[in-house]
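Researcher: Please predict.
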Amino acid sequence: MRRRTPRPTRTRKLTSTVLAAAAALGLGIALAAPVPQPARAEPAAAAATDYCRGQCSDILPPGATGNATLADILANRVLGTHPEHSTDQLGPYGDLASGYPTLTDDKLNSFFNDSSFGVPADQVASVTKPRDDVTITRDKKTGVPHIQGTTREGTEYGAGYAAAQDRLWLMDLFRHVGRGELTPFAGGAPANQGLEQDFFRQAPYTEEDYQAQIDYILAHGGERGRQALADAQAYVDGINAYAKKSKDGRYFPGEYVLTGHIDAITNAGEIQPFKLTDLIALASVVGALFGNGGGGEVEGALSLLAAQQKYGLAEGTKVWESFRERNDPEAVLTVRDGSFPYAGKPADPKGTALPDTGSVTPEQLVYDREGGAATKARTQVKAPKSSLEPLRGIYDDGVLPRDLFSRKKGMSNALVVSGKYTESGHPVAVFGPQTGYFAPQLLMLQEIQGPGISARGASFAGVGMYVQLGRGQDYAWSATTSAQDITDTYAVELCSPDGSAPSKDSTYYRFRGDCVPMDKLERRNAWKPTLADSTAAGSYRMQVYRTKYGLVTHRATVGGKPVAYTMLRSTYRHEADSIIGFQMLNDPGYVTDAKSFQSAAQHINYTFNWFYADSRQTGYYNSGLNPVRAADVDSSLPVKAETAYEWRDFDPKDNTAAATPPAEHPQSIDQDYYISWNNKLAKDYSAAGFGNGSVHRGNLLDDRVRALVRKGGVTRSALTRAMAEAAVTDLRGEDVLPELLKVVRSKPIDDPKLATAVAQLDSWRSAGSQRHETSAGSHTYGHADAVRIMDAWWPLLVEAEFKSGLGDGLYDALRTNLSVDESPSAGHGPTGSHAGSSFQYGWWSYVDKDLRTVLGEDVKGPLARPYCGGGELGACRDALLTSLKTAVGKTAAQVYPGDDNCSAGDQWCADAIIQRPVGGLTHDKISWQNRPTFQQVVEFPAHR
């Protein structure tokens, strides 16, 4: 189905409006929103002491309200209205792209929310009391829930209740994703099939596995672990209380009707109650999306073999290592002092298990396709009411992006400056996670105040017992994805129980000398067509084999013997363990300074960079369950599944092993400044993926913050301006185009068209290489032709520079390891196209190093050999100009071919950010920005 372009935003402020609309559309009052209760006469509960004194701000588009009744959804699609507070943070967020140049501290809250604790009496919009020991106060401006409990249980019950008020449908959706059961719940659209397959391949679990994670926390988490599970149970109870109340009151999310779970006329049907194991399933989704690292060793092995085939064993290995860039000396660092060796290349690797050429086959996942799983057939079902026809097929393209789990995720940024270099003498931070753009958002804003908990910020919907990124009474914290290598690939020797020669398809393997069977994990999913998803009824079976060395991903032969390649992730079966660290971050009695903050972060096993700021200190810590590998094992490549090459103290019973001690993780307190945009963490801390070299989007932040610190007197607005300017800057234009221009201008350019194009590119570079509107709302870029030329030229110039030298086989293999480009208009990121996050993965560093080599400039950590023009400047120039000529000849419609949301040739629209509808509501596009989805700006002037 073709996605509809969102209508201009109109926010519904009075429920009577939507009630009238519902009546006019034939829905009846029962399917509209409940009439909101006015604020109670008594004042809101007293807030905790707030030491930020009005200098903390945050933002999370599109809005706090994430639930929409059937009438809300229909009114949105037909009339263009929105439920109150569902879209009111989108405008300020989008406006920063054009408003940042003149930003001052007193204007910050024109683009952000005041994130002070509590709600002033004259700003109270409503007070809900789901039980006697907790209140949920919502403010007039944003509708964010402020949860105040007098007991710990009541506080968490209120947090769950508020989460269900704001994200019930989204939470239900993701618990089914986590369980590998998306299609039975939301429909059999091909995108839904693909997404649940990708996730089940990464984190397949049985119900017993989920319960085992709970039991593990009880057994090993001590008092905090027991408290965390009690908090989680109270949170679940709150979710279920609201779900039942909204179902009985018929103001539940309308998506339940559209997907066939509840009858629009009789109200028959069920919102399945949540249980504690559902939270484990939700936690596994968060961990897989944002807290994983490493993997891809089989693909790395294939490109290494291609390099060795082309250049020979020694030279091919050298070439491959130069593209791998696991410890590049020119890479921008987050921690600039000290060395933190981890996952480096051994001098003499042991146990490496490279496949025989041509023997690798991916493991089959899907079997027994029937009906709509085997064809593209669609079936129209009768709408419960004719007025619902405008909602037909809204999920025909799936409820979530097909590649949500299959694409690399490296997102979020942070800018933190020590008080030594600020105007006030107090640290300043601008930071937040890039989690894509969804409607409703995956994160939700909340404030939680109760015994042992005092925080405001963002939490992933469904696991929001605690604030995961936010602020406490006198400190704030945030995270970026670090993605260090915690996932290894083992080559498991296959066997036959009867002693005969095994085939590649054998389901038995050797473990410490014994021939043992693999565990088979299955999910049989079936669906029927609904009003929202017309995919014909169908079914299939997903199957993953699990060994003690992890999940089978490929089959191959090594030295002629059949093996299964398995993926072993240290956090598999431990996604919920991090709950203790998040609990600590919310506890004002635990976090009192940067050191105690680092201690809390040590209890989080997700691979994150954690940043901290209070009125006196800044701090950083890299979390993650880093396994201690056997000596001389190269974790970038597959390893033999033998005792000698196992993780130290490996116990497959609970998938546990020795972990590197906290002192060996990159960390720092009071460095002059910190930046992170998923760049290299520290010296000798090997990057898990390819291409982390001389040019990285982290440079866009580092260059700007370093200049601010050198000048001194940094303010909140100055640091925000630095972030916002980087957010609209094209990395290729700022950091690679100068070398490109040097090469093509090494001799006069005779072709007038090429000379004009080069002049346009140079003018764009001189103006800042930005992808920025000429004026707010113009929907036209300044230097639009130069931007178009760069977008067309980049993939062509990379091919012209490298393909002939590498050869087709190696060039294609390396492109599998690292995509060539990630421009804003490319179909990448957690929401597919229109996702904002850009310039994380690409060949910018390779191009930069190669061109500097050809130009005769100093290059630390160069590629093993020059490629452009075979290293000859004139030939390189000719190759680049030939590719530029092709690029110049491409029309805007060819460069930006259009999609369901944009016309061909619309450059601004091709880049624009769209809140990907997960529920029934749609929202306006906003101009491209490469910045966090949830973002804080903080400067604490005081401390406890």
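Model: Confidence is low (pLDDT under 50) at residues 1-9, 12-21, 35-45.
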